[in-house]
Amino acid sequence: MKARKTVLLAFLVMFSSTLADRLWALSPLHRVEIASRVEVTGDAVYLSDIVVPESVPEDWFRKFQSIYLGEAPQPGEVKYVQVALLADYLRKVISSNMMSSESAEDIVISIPDEVVVSRKTIVIPKEEIEKAYVDYVLAHSPWDAEDIKIEQIRYAGLPVVPAGTRTYEVSADRNERFLGNVTLTVRCLVNGRHARTLRVAGFVRLFKEVIHASEIIPKGSIIDASKLSWKRADITESPEDYVTEPSRVIGKRVLQDVYPGEPIKISEIDDPIVVRRGDPVKIVFQRPGLILTAKGQVKEDGRVGDVVKVINLSSRKVIQCRVASKDVVMVE
């Protein structure tokens, strides 16, 4: 990223104000050396950041740590101290903290031609971003953690942020299913302040123990328990189409050949036809406290639960009935 030239101006405002009270005497000061290249870690620049520590006594350096110069530059940017004004500024700071018998004019102040302040940055480790992504998926996915596998985690760009203590805030789209391609928003905070936002994508696979055919089941056959087996499978593509309960397939008809080792899918089965046109059935009319029956004949094919036309053989009237079994229909 190209550096942007910004000047630290905070100390200019301080010329017209009282810089400090002489609450206590500091050690004798003979020399102050200013560094030409400075890298800060926080959000602000203090006088101590640009002073070479070895050039001043410890108590003076601690004093300089409390004197604010301005905001630190953003990652990839730099700021410049106005060296032409810095010497006078330093003498005012020093004078305000010396005994009245001492003179700041006797202090040797060494200032380079240029003072450049930059922000210490780091590239967020890939493992750290991956962990934030995985932790969020595991905490918010409707699937059991042992049934999912997260892979192909990726994001664009180089995640450069200021140095400091990093925490993360992760969020997902409202309708996220946490299955297949999953993209999350990962906000990185440094020392509690927002530093970078990343869109992180990954692929979430779902595995379940689902029902498979243990032998070939020809098209049109009715499934029974002897033809079923269990096997763990990747059901990421359409988990609702796979079967985990035998009761959902036993007695159903397959719509195409199912070979040994293949999963039995909901989309490939249906209820078998239990009554066909012309079959004799018992018509049942049931209301609270009343049950009437009559003989009838089905006018069309039907499955359990279907509504079909039935002729009452006594009255010869055609009525609508719901199929209860291969022998019984219920008057609607």
TrEMBL record:
Locations listed in the record: Periplasm
GO cellular component, one term: periplasmic space
Signal peptide location: 1-20
A family per Pfam: ChapFlgA
Key words of the record: Cell projection, Cilium, Flagellum, Periplasm, Signal
Coiled coil residues, start to end: none
Keyword Signal: yes
GO biological process, one term: bacterial-type flagellum assembly
Domain SAF: 208-270
Superkingdom: Bacteria
NCBIfam families: flgA_cterm
The protein, known as: Flagella basal body P-ring formation protein FlgA
